[in-house]
Amino acid sequence: MYRKPNVNELQLHRFIRQGITAESLAEPLVSFDSERDAGEVRLELRERDFDIAGIRQAGVVTGEVRREDLINGRCGDWIREIPDEAIVSSYAPVPELLTRIERHGHLFVLALGSIAGIITYADLQKAPVRMWLFGLITMIEQSITESIRLRYREEYWRSMLSPTRVGRAEELQQERRRRNESRDLVDCLQFGDKAWILFKEKEIRDQVGFTSRRVARQRVASLEKLRNRLAHAQDMVTEDLETIVRLALGLDTVLEMISGLEGRGQGDIAQ
User: End-to-end alpha-carbon separation of the chain, Å?
Assistant: First the structure.
């Protein structure tokens, strides 16, 4: 079964792919002339709480230097080459930034043909990335919800959850109805419960790259933790990076999911 994405979903697709770019996250890169005294620059970087700086030769940033390297001599004595993979355009979208920063730890941003900005892990805490992540996770949950609605009868998926889990969904449904919010019971399930239902089928797990139900459960649990941190304005932690990068790498799969999964499950709504 295939569901054609509506206009709002297509707009969200575009936002997720290209809506936020490097220029929204980058900080100006502090740089020093290669002839500057290394000890002086080390002290200046410490005072400003910077670990990395650019090194200029003939007025152009040609390399980087790490604060801990600056022991003596000139800054140019400690210059490090910047790999091409660590240099991005100011228009590079978030998915590209996430996959590259995982490999290099920080990125340098081009502006008007010269290196002028830097992106570090700390910049992933900024509002644009948090918005991007929350939007992507919301898309995943909406996709799972709609897929369950299309593939299964309610009586079928009820049998796949414990009475306690179904009971909690029913309580939430009743509360929403009291607020005049019409919601199907499937809308009131927890994220993890929805995933447990949908990823029971090997065919679907294969489509989204999960090798087993255990792996699917782990991935969903990671998404839930990340979503909760984002929703409560908490800092993302190091362990979130793996989940974030996996989302970026699997972006095409995620965007396809929201259009609806093909095929029908054992609890198909068709008679």
Answer: 15
Q: Residue 243 in contact with residue 134, Cβ under 8 Å?
A: no
Are 157 and 253 members of one domain? yes
**What is the CATH classification number for the domain harbouring 79?**
3.10.580.10
pLDDT in tens, 57-108: 999 999 999 999 999 999 999 999 999 999 999 999 998 998 899 888 899 9
Tokens for 1? 């079964």
Q: What one-character-per-residue DSSP string does 134-153 give?
A: HHHHHHHHHHHHHHHHHH--
Residues 196 and 236 in one domain: yes
**For the whole prediction, is pTM greater than 0.70?**
yes
Q: Which residues of the chain form beta strands (DSSP E)?
A: 27-28, 31-33, 52-57, 60-66, 87-89, 106-111, 114-120
Q: What is the pLDDT of residue 270?
A: 33
Task: Tell me the H-state helices in 105-126.
Answer: none
